[in-house]
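Here is one chain, start to finish.
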Amino acid sequence: MIMTKEIKVGYVHKLRVNVKSLAAEAVIIRNETKRAGKDYKDSLYVHRVGRLRTEARYAQLALAYIRGKRYKLCENRVREGNEPSFNKIIAKLGKISYLLNEGKHEVAVKEWLAAS
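Its structure:
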């Protein structure tokens, strides 16, 4: 797939909306954690620092890939065992468009992650 400037800009907007909605959800969960009863505080906290934080990270990585930024500029230091999952980045790209999930970007994403 040839990515024209118009297509790229559309993907950037979709991913920016996703990043902003995930950030807003984190704020909402943090506020609700203060109000929630003891039984629900732990559940809300685990959701926020677990799944939500991971989703936000991969949304940011997909956005950086589409914008053409180098991976090392996005995540300068990554702890051992916390390297990004290639499959999750491909899945995030596939959510914004079926065109990005045709397998044509798989090699490019692998090279993007491996490049220093």
